[in-house]
Design goal:
179 residues; mainly alpha
Length: 179
């Protein structure tokens, strides 16, 4: 079996940053922005944090996707021949597509909020009563979605751990025999 260190590293590091960054922003940045002093400063601080995270997140997602393709190519024989590997790969693909979709939608909502400037906010995702209706609606959706991305990417971490277990020699032998 050939080594796939580069693709595995891109896969794991990209996924780790995607998961950890979105979780940290949901847990810390959005709440910490409320400490900025005024409602306008709260919105400005939250926007600045998320806008700074966006290119890093995009790079992390790109690294993860490149690594995922490399892992799939490197393990294509196992996917075809080992019982359970194709199903696990399909699950990972579905979770990845869902996480990408929610991330893209969240970014579009975040752009609405960011483009509005220093929108008065109670926190990064909690609009004040003075926020414009369109911005307040985007923030309300972001308030829910900020937890969906870490949940989906966290599920990807778990499935990736399971995929690693499937590569144990005893699992490979049993999976090939079951085919």
């Amino acid at each position: 079996m050939a080594r796939n260190t580069l693709s595995r590293s891109l896969h794991d590091l990209g996924l780790s940053a995607w998961f950890g960054g979105t979780l940290a922003n949901a847990v810390a940045l959005n709440a910490a922005a409320a400490e900025a002093g005024s409602a306008s400063d709260t919105g400005r601080v939250a926007n600045a944090g998320w806008d700074r995270w966006t290119p890093v997140n995009a790079a992390a997602i790109g690294a993860h996707l490149i690594g995922s393709v490399g892992q799939l190519l490197g393990n294509r024989r196992r996917v075809a021949e080992q019982q359970g590997v194709a199903g696990m790969s399909a699950l990972k693909t579905t979770l990845t597509a869902a996480a990408l979709g929610v991330t893209a939608y969240s970014r579009a909502l975040g752009k609405v909020v960011s483009d509005a400037g220093g929108t008065p906010s109670r926190s990064g995702t909690k609009p004040s009563k003075r926020a414009k209706a369109e911005v307040a609606a985007a923030q309300a959706k972001l308030d829910q979605l900020q937890w969906v991305i870490p949940a989906l990417t966290g599920a990807l971490v778990v499935v990736s751990s399971y995929a690693g277990e499937q590569q144990r020699p005893s699992e490979v032998a049993r999976g090939l025999a079951q085919r």
